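Proteins fold reproducibly. Take a tokenised chain:

. . .
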Amino acid sequence: MQIKRIGALSAGKVTGALYALIGLIFGVIFALFSLLGIVIGSLASASFDSSTAALFSGVGVAIASVIFLLVLYGILGFISGLISAFLYNVVAGLIGGIEVDVE
């Protein structure tokens, strides 16, 4: 069997979803390290008011980073999936598709 054509929109949706999942994972990791840094910084601070404000701003940055990376990675994954499928279809039309052995 030979894969002669890939649906560009289908490939874009799949890669967009996969990249969004990766963005979510990286966003959560980034948020955790951000919050850890804020907590450590606030423990070292002498003023309770400034450490509380820093903690609340850190939580906002953490939530924003999760959402931003999720959306950014999802959009970039969708676009790269579209472009990759389009280029595959052009090349496969010229030289043939990928051969796959199935049972």
Summary: The beta strands are 2-3, 98-99. The chain has a mean pLDDT of 87. The radius of gyration is 22 Å. Residues 48-95 form the longest helix (48 residues).
